[in-house]
């Protein structure tokens, strides 16, 4: 059965009505789930297997029948490990129906149907008793309910319910406990993701509005591959602290709680950011440990096990605070049932009640963390200011088309007195502009137009953009206001070029690679399920990834494949390019001499290493199978890209051929 669905088109800005199968949503969820990443995580799998074997042995040593409850079974992997380790029976709970069906198929294929029962329910809906889903309470609880923040997938409520209703009082748990660690640091690089910094424009120092400076910011975690943040970009102000532990073998509470770690500051500086991660002990003695610590915390960084389903967390303090070497500090972590947050007090304020950060300035609700970083990028700002300086005149009439942009302020300070803003967050942006200008005691004249536009400007940036070409919404806006433009109007940027480069990922390939077998179990039905969902649509499309977090090696030189001329309206016919010879990004030609890249920030080094813009996501098109390439330029990258103006989409096809 098919139905018409209204979908907002991020490129054209239109509401497109498309005919979709009723299975579209779950195909999309499966395709983007990255289940393969977990199964490729050898360190995780081995540690779970060791912990399960040990737990089964302990229960058997007590002379008990081993009954396992596996909450969030996914493929059924942990249940099959338990039965192989000697468990008598296993109840595998999986709420997502397609995954439960795949688990049933995998369990059957591996010959465990008589000892594993897959239950397609949320664990809080499972019943126990003669007529229930489970015949008896379990004496081993196995779960993988964790996310980067540990508790963000509802681990605490699930454990709380399981101990109350599904497992025995003296049950074993795998993992046995979790420990959360944190380190207080000073980092200008990371702090720029949270607070707007002063900006210098032609001798005018623009200070962020007090409301933004005093705002505690967004409460949500910033999860990143912390291993890709160079240690030299932050200064530790204290030791790595053990913040709290959760023993999963005992009753767990999901009630809000706070914990404090006291320490002396190791050095003087500005307390800005908390770096945090966790580890899990698979056994009571802590001999089997799976840690999420970043690579630079390893004695040998080369032994760091890469994983993307669990990363590390960055938390921004409500306000930066000066600390002195030797000063007594209290780092406080608080949590509710789904999230964590941090606060800092000095020794004299130990009884100060921690509060959950909440944005009061609107900026943190409109600007993402990468967007804050982009607005604070001094080199990028200089490029835009230089471009505006070269085109603006005192009588310029400007229209800015971007979300939450500072270009109107730059234009005003460079002499333009007639400026208007149009975007999806116009009231917020005008408020920010007015507060910044008022701070400098500069009168402002942000107006809506009665005159012809002489300068149409944009970064372009839009909050709805995910892929590089979604920002072509600027081109559609330019076309929509064509009749308002002066015949000699200047468009900034004047053009954009889409670039591609063939790459070999160090690790990111794992999220799309088939597993086949995992720890000796055949999980190919999951591979087949994911491939069916990918073939439904996703395998024909690129997906957004912040490539600065994922090292790769260039196998070809960057190549321009499509150019979009913003001085002209969007054409009626498709724009395409055929070339005989993949990451994709935009480069915006602000003027003839000034270009800003949303992808590579430096030329590819001789060995193929790439440095990527950390503020925007790039497009990644995964080949369905691995292409062997030497990386010395001998192979040809062939591609066919077509820009469809009516949908704003880019259809793409790539192939690699021998010379």
UniProtKB/TrEMBL annotation:
Keyword line: Chromatin regulator, Cytoplasm, Differentiation, Methyltransferase, Nucleus, Repeat, S-adenosyl-L-methionine, Transcription, Transcription regulation, Transferase
Enzyme Commission no: 2.1.1.321
A matching Pfam family: PRMT_C
Class of the enzyme per the UniProt entry, highest EC level: transferase
GO biological process, one term: spliceosomal snRNP assembly
Entry's Gene Ontology cellular component terms: cytosol; nucleus
Classification via SUPFAM superfamilies: S-adenosyl-L-methionine-dependent methyltransferases
GO molecular function: histone H4R3 methyltransferase activity; protein-arginine omega-N monomethyltransferase activity
Gene3D superfamilies: Hnrnp arginine n-methyltransferase1, Vaccinia Virus protein VP39
Reaction catalyzed: L-arginyl-[protein] + S-adenosyl-L-methionine = N(omega)-methyl-L-arginyl-[protein] + S-adenosyl-L-homocysteine + H(+)
Annotated localization: Cytoplasm, Cytosol; Nucleus
Residue ranges annotated for the Protein arginine N-methyltransferase domain, each copy included: 176-345, 495-657
Main location group: cytoplasm
Function: Arginine methyltransferase that can both catalyze the formation of omega-N monomethylarginine (MMA) and symmetrical dimethylarginine (sDMA), with a preference for the formation of MMA. Specifically mediates the symmetrical dimethylation of arginine residues in the small nuclear ribonucleoproteins Sm D1 (SNRPD1) and Sm D3 (SNRPD3); such methylation being required for the assembly and biogenesis of snRNP core particles. Specifically mediates the symmetric dimethylation of histone H4 'Arg-3' to form H4R3me2s.
Family: Belongs to the class I-like SAM-binding methyltransferase superfamily. Protein arginine N-methyltransferase family. PRMT7 subfamily.
Protein name per UniProt: Protein arginine N-methyltransferase
Organism: Cyprinus carpio (Common carp)
């Amino acid at each position: 059965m098919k139905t018409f669905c209204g979908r907002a088109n991020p490129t054209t800005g239109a509401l497109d009505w498309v005919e979709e199968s009723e299975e579209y949503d779950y195909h999309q969820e499966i395709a983007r789930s990255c289940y393969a990443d977990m199964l490729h995580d050898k360190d995780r799998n081995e540690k779970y297997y060791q912990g399960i074997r040990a737990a089964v042995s302990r229960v058997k040593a007590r002379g008990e029948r081993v009954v396992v409850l596996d909450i969030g079974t996914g493929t059924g992997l942990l249940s099959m490990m338990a039965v192989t380790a000697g468990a008598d029976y296993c109840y595998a709970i999986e709420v997502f129906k397609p995954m439960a069906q795949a688990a049933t198929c995998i369990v059957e294929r591996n010959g465990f149907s008589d000892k594993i029962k897959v239950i397609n329910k949320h664990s809080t809906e499972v019943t126990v008793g003669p007529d229930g889903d489970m015949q008896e309470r379990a004496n081993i609880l196995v779960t993988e309910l964790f996310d980067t923040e540990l508790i963000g997938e509802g681990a605490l409520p699930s454990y709380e319910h399981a101990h109350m209703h599904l497992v025995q009082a003296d049950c074993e748990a795998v993992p046995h406990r979790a420990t959360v660690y944190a380190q207080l640091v000073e980092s200008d690089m990371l702090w720029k993701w949270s607070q707007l910094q002063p900006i210098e424009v032609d001798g005018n120092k623009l200070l962020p509005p007090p409301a933004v400076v005093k705002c505690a910011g967004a409460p949500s975690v910033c999860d990143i591959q912390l291993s890709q943040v160079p240690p030299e970009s932050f200064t530790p102000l204290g030791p790595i602290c053990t913040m709290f532990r959760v023993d999963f073998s005992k009753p767990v509470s999901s009630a809000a709680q706070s914990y404090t770690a006291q320490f002396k500051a190791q050095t003087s500086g500005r307390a800005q950011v908390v770096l945090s991660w966790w580890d899990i002990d698979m056994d009571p003695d802590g001999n089997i440990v799976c840690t999420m610590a970043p690579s630079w915390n390893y004695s040998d960084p080369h032994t760091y096990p890469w994983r993307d389903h669990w990363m590390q967390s960055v938390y921004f303090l409500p306000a930066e605070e000066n600390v002195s070497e030797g000063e007594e500090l209290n780092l406080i972590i608080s949590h509710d049932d789904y999230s964590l947050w941090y606060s800092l007090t000095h020794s004299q304020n130990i009884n100060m009640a921690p509060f959950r950060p909440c944005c009061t300035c609107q900026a943190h609700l409109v600007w993402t963390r990468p967007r804050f970083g982009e607005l604070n990028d001094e080199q990028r700002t200089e490029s835009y200011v230089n471009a505006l300086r070269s085109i603006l005149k005192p009588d310029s009439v400007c229209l800015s088309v971007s979300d939450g942009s500072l270009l109107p302020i730059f234009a005003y300070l460079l002499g333009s007195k007639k400026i208007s803003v149009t975007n999806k967050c116009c009231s917020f942006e005008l408020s920010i502009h007015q507060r910044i200008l008022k701070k400098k005691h500069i009168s402002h004249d942000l107006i809506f137009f009665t005159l012809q536009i002489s300068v149409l400007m944009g970064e372009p940036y839009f909050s709805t953009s995910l892929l590089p070409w979604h920002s072509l919404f600027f081109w559609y806006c330019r076309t929509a206001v064509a009749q308002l433009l002066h015949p000699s109007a200047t468009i900034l940027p004047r053009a954009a070029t889409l670039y591609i480069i063939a790459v070999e990922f160090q690790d990111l390939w794992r999220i799309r690679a088939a597993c086949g077998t995992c720890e000796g179990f055949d999980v190919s039905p999951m591979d087949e399920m994911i491939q069916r969902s990918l073939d439904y649509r996703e395998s024909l499309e690129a997906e957004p990834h912040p490539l600065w977090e994922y090292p790769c090696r260039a196998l070809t030189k960057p190549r321009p494949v499509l150019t979009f001329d913003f001085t002209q309206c969007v054409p009626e016919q498709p724009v395409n390019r055929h070339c005989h010879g993949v990451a994709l990004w935009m480069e915006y030609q602000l003027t003839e001499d000034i270009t800003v890249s949303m992808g590579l920030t430096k030329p590819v080094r001789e060995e193929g290493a790439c440095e990527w813009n950390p503020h925007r996501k790039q497009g990644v098109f995964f080949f369905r199978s691995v292409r062997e390439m030497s990386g010395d330029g001998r192979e040809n990258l062939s591609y066919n890209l077509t820009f469809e103006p009516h949908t704003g989409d880019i259809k793409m096809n790539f192939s690699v051929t021998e010379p």
